[in-house]
From TrEMBL, chain A:
GO CC, one annotated term: plasma membrane
Name of the featured protein: Peptide ABC transporter ATP-binding protein
Domain annotation ABC transporter: ranges: 6-252
Main location: membrane
Similarity comment: Belongs to the ABC transporter superfamily.
Top-level taxon of the source organism: Bacteria
Membrane topology according to the record: Peripheral membrane protein
InterPro entries: AAA+_ATPase, ABC_Ni/Peptide_Import, ABC_transporter-like_ATP-bd, P-loop_NTPase
Entries under Pfam families matching the protein: ABC_tran
UniProtKB/TrEMBL annotation, chain B:
InterPro entries named in the record: AAA+_ATPase, ABC_transp_ATP-bind, ABC_transporter-like_ATP-bd, ABC_transporter-like_CS, P-loop_NTPase
Source organism per UniProt: Ensifer adhaerens (Sinorhizobium morelense)
Swiss-Prot/TrEMBL keywords: ATP-binding, Nucleotide-binding, Transport
GO biological process per UniProt: transmembrane transport
Record-given protein name: Peptide ABC transporter ATP-binding protein
UniProt key word ATP-binding: yes
Superkingdom of the organism of origin: Bacteria
Annotated ABC transporter domain residues: 5-242
Length: 278, 253
């Protein structure tokens, strides 16, 4: 088997001042593949993603292993981390508009990502940024380039984040709900772009999503998280054959086109789901 | 008490001079009392803008918006807040970073001089499936979905008659989504709430809405009954394409 891009073993994360760990012993490896992470709201998915980029000030992170390629993320200095973050490992954050600077034009912020990582003129960076906004199917990229974050729609914000990530040309992408605000037609086009990166450039992709249809059809493998732990790992095409009661409950709670109008099935969360497996 | 909503020729332009963009050329639709009306369509087509016009978050639009026959422009602020509330698409932006959940929820109660504050806050936070201890948290200490549930609790706490919901559940896992959708259905049955709901998930439309409008580039292409979804009964080419893609998205295995 080829060497994994990312190796995570027994990752534990505690927020400063919190009484319990938000992430309790998560382990997985990632190759050149699309790995989905699904799970309960608040189960620690974004926390895992941010820990990989060491974007958790004040939190305590421990692990038996946390390796990205040849790098040990646990001991890397902040200076070395700066070279990795954004450039080699990039995260599409869950709150796109919040992660943009509110008082700068969105296009300039996209162009800046390119300037930060590659040597080129301002005009070249602008052209790159415009081309990328077009690639993510933004209508009228010239107009959107000059807009401020509060002037763009939710789905445009998500696509701006994706454009920034694409320009940095990373080896590992952590996408936290990257397409939840996109209509299905545009969503499929954007997923196609991400797919191309895995297929043609051999990047590793972690896709955090609540969209079970997306994970089932687009990912290779899926981790299911509940209360800070991975409770089940499946091949994506076997999602419907999941065995953990939490995963089964998720599948049952999904509304379906043509389904009835009876109240949706809700989960009866069990205390034993919190316990570590023997 | 149920209210109706009528929008007639609502139009909005942002910017001035050559840079001006007409985001909504002319939008008209009506929603019956106690109806759940869906707004779906292309990302960037103006769905959130329609909700912002109805809620008067922006007032630079022209045309008419009537709530129960009354022009929304003429409603005094206090009455407007008791009549309609909005849940925003990006909950992080809509919650003040330095306000605890308790402050977020108690402020509207204080402004509207409602009693039993502690009791109402506890009920609102439990209704959206969060523990009461979360009242003392700040937005940055919450996950994306937990923030969204706080935003929903804030909208519900004043018991408005009309709720404008901008993708209320797209940040929630489907089990929490089921709880929220069931709660919204129950409130509609018990208290006759009227909803206008933006979503990209046609399964949610089919489950919740009576009718829905499909938007493209600032215009409503077509208003359809929910029954049009399973067999794709749309006639406008974009609406047909969108429903077709959604059917495929759900069934491709
Ligand atoms: N700064 C913080 N301080 C204390 N607790 C925090 C902080 N940030 C997050 N948490 C808690 O850690 C847990 C995990 O949060 P995380 O954001 O990783 O969840 P998530 O799985 O991404 O959820 P969602 O699907 O709702 O986005 C949550 O219970 C949250 O309340
Ligand atoms: N304050 C503003 N100034 C300039 N343009 C604006 C402003 N607010 C919105 N727009 C533009 O209006 C259009 C519609 O935006 P809106 O947020 O209503 O879209 P949406 O249908 O909600 O999209 P999404 O599904 O992606 O959230 C976009 O092109 C946006 O750039
Ligand atoms: Mg999250
Ligand atoms: Mg919107």
């Amino acid at each position: 088997m080829e060497k994994p891009i990312l190796e995570v073993d027994n990752l534990r994360i505690r927020y400063g001042g919190a009484s319990a760990e938000a992430v309790r012993g998560v382990s997985f490896t990632l190759g050149r593949e699309r790995l989905g992470i699904v799970g309960e709201s608040g189960s620690g998915k974004s926390t895992v993603g941010r820990a990989l980029l060491r974007l958790l000030p004040g939190a305590t992170i421990t692990a038996d292993k946390l390796r990205f390629g040849e790098l040990d993320l646990l001991t890397l200095s902040e200076k070395e981390m700066l070279k990795v973050r954004g450039r080699r490992m990039s995260m599409i954050l869950q709150d796109p508009k919040f992660s943009l600077n509110p008082i700068r034009r969105v296009g300039d912020q996209v162009a800046e990502t390119y300037l930060r990582h590659f040597r080129c003129s301002k005009a070249e960076a602008r052209d790159k940024a415009l081309a990328m906004l077009e690639a993510v199917k933004i209508r009228d990229p010239e107009r959107v380039y000059d807009q401020y974050p509060h002037e763009i729609s939710g789905g445009m914000g998500q696509r701006v984040m994706i454009a920034m990530m694409l320009l940095a040309d990373p080896d590992l992408v952590i996408a936290d709900e990257p397409t939840s605000a996109l209509d299905v037609t545009v969503r499929l086009q954007v997923l196609n772009i991400l797919d191309g990166l895995v297929r043609d450039r051999g990047i590793g992709l972690i896709m955090i999503s609540h969209d079970l249809n997306l994970v089932r059809n687009f990912c290779d493998r899926v981790l299911i998280m509940y209360a800070g732990r991975v409770v089940e790992t499946l091949a994506a095409r076997d999602l419907d054959r999941a065995e953990h009661p939490y995963t089964r409950g998720l599948l049952a709670a999904q509304p379906r086109i043509g389904g009835g109008r009876a109240p949706l099935a809700v989960l009866d969360r069990q205390l034993e789901w919190l316990e570590e497996k023997a | 008490m149920s209210v109706s909503v009528e929008t007639r020729d609502v139009s909005i332009t942002f910017g001035a001079g050559p840079a001006a963009v007409r985001v909504l050329p002319s939008v008209s639709f009506s929603v019956g009392p106690g109806e759940c009306f869906g707004l779906v369509g292309e990302s960037g087509s103006g769905k959130s803008t329609v909700l912002r016009c109805i809620s008067m978050l922006t007032d630079i639009w022209t045309g008419d918006i009537l709530i129960d026959g009354k022009p929304v422009r003429e409603m005094p602020l206090i009455e407007r807040c008791r009549t309609l509330q909005m849940v925003f698409q990006d909950p992080y932006g809509s919650l003040h970073p330095r306000q605890s959940v308790r402050t977020v929820l108690s402020e509207p109660l204080a402004i509207h001089r409602l009693g039993d504050r502690e009791e109402r806050m506890r009920k609102a936070i439990t209704d959206v499936g969060l523990p009461v201890s979360f009242l003392d948290r700040f937005p940055h200490q919450l996950s994306g979905g937990q923030r969204q549930r706080v935003a929903i609790a804030r909208a519900l706490i004043l018991e408005p008659s009309l709720l404008l919901l901008d993708e209320p559940t797209s940040a929630l896992d489907v089990s929490v989504q089921a709880e929220i959708l069931n709660l919204l259905q129950r409130l509609r049955e018990e208290r006759g709430f009227t909803y206008i709901m933006v979503t990209h998930d046609l399964a949610v439309v089919d489950h919740m809405c009576d009718r829905f409008a499909v938007m493209l580039h600032g215009e409503i292409t077509e208003v359809l009954p929910r029954e049009a979804i399973p067999a794709n009964g749309a006639t406008h080419p974009y609406a047909r394409e969108l429903i077709g893609a959604s059917l495929e998205y759900e069934s491709a295995h």
